[in-house]
Amino acid sequence: MTKTSHSIRTLSLMMTSVVALTALAACQTTGSSAQGGETGRQAKIDQAIERAANDADAAGSAQDSLALVEKLYKRNPKDASVATRYARALRNENRLTRANLVIEPFAQDSKAATADVLVEYASIQTSMGNHAGAEAAARRAVDKNPESGKAYHVLGVALDAQGKHKPAEEAFRSGLEYWQGNPSPLLNNLGLNLAAQGFLDEAAETLRKAAATAPNRAEIERNLRIVNALQVSGGQVPSYLKQEEKDEEKKPKKDDAEKNDKKAAIDHDAPYVPPSKPHPAPAVQKASLSVKPIMDNDPAVKQAQTQAPVPTQKPVSTAAVNQ
């Protein structure tokens, strides 16, 4: 074979290789484009579901929102933000066991446990009565984000439920400093914390601020009436309020959603009512005139007709004034 013929044959083989590689690259590009197109389509579906869930939230349809968020979670079970939203929707419907199962793996994963995840996990724990666990999770949330008003709020709720009223007051006040949105849940719970410590004048003033930010919230108005009555009666609950509580207890209780597949009304976020005496630590599970605190995501708060800014100055404790 001549030198020229050999060179032509070598060049031909090289061209064949280039063509083959180009074809292979084209196939790979086509496959990547198809895969990218499918990912884009799935993302658009997720966005459509999320918009529909947001619309349901805005319309006050908790059950429709839950169904949509559940669908979103099933499509993205490893997404911490989606799991957090799903757990919150479940908690709002009082489906606490399911909510805990959804959020717990993320709360226990040091990488996935964001402040938002831990706030929701703590909220679920305190709703289930595990206040010590809620306190631990809330402290982790504060460590993750020291400027999270929600983290301080749920920490205050957990501490208050354990009778740790002074640390709870400090947590509530820190929450006010960083709070965003309607502050009525935090103001309500701070007011009742102050009432439990015997600071009735300051408690009444704080509850009035809470009522002003959520005028449609009957529980806050009732709490304010009770504190006002305690002021007048020297710390003793009037008989008509005790009768009101008895009448409330006689009302038929709603069924648990997890036990009978019925959607329970949102009642686990009702505000805590101060005890019948001004100073003792409030009972958590069962006591006269006591219910659970309002949480910051309570749907009833979202539907309040007026919105008020967070107070620019934090209330001063009566104890601090006397020093």
Automatic annotation (TrEMBL):
Coiled coil: none annotated. Keywords: Signal. The keyword Metal-binding does not apply. SMART domains: TPR. Residues 1-25 form the signal peptide. Residues 303-323 have a biased composition (Polar residues). Residues 237-323 are annotated as: Disordered. Residues 242-270 have a biased composition (Basic and acidic residues). Residues 272-281 have a biased composition (Pro residues). This is Uncharacterized protein. It comes from Micavibrio aeruginosavorus EPB.
